[in-house]
Design a protein that fits this description.
It contains 15 helices and 17 strands. With 384 residues, the protein is of the alpha/beta class. The chain binds S-adenosylmethionine and iron/sulfur cluster. The site of iron/sulfur cluster (SF4) has 11 residues, from loops.
């Protein structure tokens, strides 16, 4: 393994906001119901201060780089005030520069009590919104335990656009309990017609440690799921959306932040349970912050609960697991630049996958074929 040079690897920043008004029964993210359904100004300020202290401990990992993109995820990050973000960004920028055209995404929930006016977030420098809609169908919203109505969701997209956000992602889930093909398609149509410039379209998965895992709601048959997938894809394509990653559809630019994850770029990570990845001359490291908000606040700055170097033998799989999610794959040169390994060492595996017509790999680019995307898991097994 040769020495790595992080300078040419983009460095993003993930910020985790761990609270929600209510915990949804299908969700296994690190999110916790906020006491009394409202985040107090005291708790907000205490958490923001802890984030700054956390960031300070990570500045050395930047190794001279500026911040390429920021993603504020949750939880429900829109429970934090726009003013709070202004306070936070001022302090983060005093410690590390943000690139001039830095993409800053905020995950926002559509409920009226779940966000400040969108114009206020735009005014403090957030330039991309990601709205957690999930469905526009009142019955499905109720079954999913969401606190927003269908109208809240439609209004939120329009309000975001009217406030001046040119980039509005809508998160939708499909394959919901008892969902028909028509209902799933209607959800996509409403998002498209109301101005979503990007759609993240996820099939619902039943995760351990969730209420849905215990109650096992009845999900649509496999045949219905396949039809939803096929028809949804056809509808989005016909309406000018480009599928650039397994679940990501864009009508404008790709999400710079998510693209950096998939291109095996680096990211600092602050906030309860946040995961980061950084390249150092001697290897690629992953780290994680303590998960529970109360523990994160009890010891400031929070420690890294794990800082682990990825073993050289694990790097080919780790790299491919990210890169091959992208429809266009990645530049072949990224492999050596971001793992410190030579692509030639994989020649035999690449050739076998090429012969099976699952992979396109030459001196320029590594990508799955259409068939390779369908059988992504077996393609990835080759790199284990
Ligand atoms: C980290 S969540 C936070 C977004 C925001 N709090 C919300 O729910 O409105 C990001 C997205 O993951 C998706 N998601 C969450 N749980 C899921 C599950 N069990 N299966 C599929 N997608 C899921 C949802 O679309 C959600 O909007
Ligand atoms: S609002 Fe989002 S993050 Fe919070 S519990 Fe529901 S799905 Fe999870």
């Amino acid at each position: 393994m040769s020495l790595l040079n992080p300078v040419n690897i983009p460095l993003s920043l993930y910020i985790h906001m761990p609270w929600c008004v209510r915990k949804c029964p299908y969700c296994d993210f690190n999110s916790h119901a906020v006491p009394d359904g409202q985040l107090s100004m005291d708790l907000e300020q205490q958490y923001l201060e802890a984030l700054v202290a956390d960031f300070e401990t990570q500045v050395e990992m930047a190794q001279g780089r500026s911040i390429h993109s920021v993603f504020i995820g949750g939880g429900t990050p829109s429970l934090i005030s726009a003013q709070g973000y202004q306070w936070l960004f001022d302090r983060l920028k005093a410690r590390l520069d943000f690139e001039d055209d830095c993409e800053i995404t905020l995950e926002a929930n559509p409920g009226t009590v779940e966000h400040d006016p969108f114009a206020d977030y735009l005014a403090v420098g957030i330039n991309r919104l990601s709205l957690g809609v999930q469905s526009f169908d009142p019955e499905h919203l109720q079954r999913l335990g969401r606190i927003h109505s269908a109208n809240n969701a439609l209004d939120a997209i329009q309000q975001a656009r009217q406030a001046g956000f040119e980039r509005v992602n809508v998160d939708l889930m499909h394959g919901l309990p008892q969902q028909t093909e028509e209902q799933a398609l209607t959800d996509l149509k409403l998002a498209v017609e109301h101005g979503a410039t990007h759609i993240s379209w996820y099939q619902l998965t039943i995760e351990p440690n969730t209420v849905f895992f215990r109650t096992q709601p009845v999900l649509p048959q496999d045949e219905v799921l396949e039809h939803i997938q096929e028809q949804g894809e056809a509808y989005l394509k016909a309406n000018g959306y480009v599928n650039y990653e397994v679940s990501a559809w864009r009508k404008e630019k790709s999400s710079a932040h998510n693209l950096n994850y998939w291109q095996f770029g680096d990211y600092l990570a602050i906030g309860a349970g946040a995961h980061g990845k950084v390249t150092r001359p001697d290897g690629v490291y992953r780290f994680q912050k303590t998960r529970l908000p109360k523990d994160y606040l009890a010891k400031v700055p929070a420690e890294h609960v794990q800082m682990k170097r990825i073993e050289a033998e694990e790097l080919p799989f780790e790299f491919m697991m990210n890169a091959l999610r992208l429809n266009e794959g990645v530049a072949a040169a990224f492999y050596a630049q971001r793992t410190g390994l030579e692509l030639d060492e994989l020649n035999q595996k690449l050739m076998q996958l090429r012969e099976k017509k699952l992979l396109i790999a030459d001196s320029q680019r590594i990508a799955c074929t259409e068939q390779g995307h369908i059988f992504l898991n077996s393609v990835l097994e080759a790199f284990l």
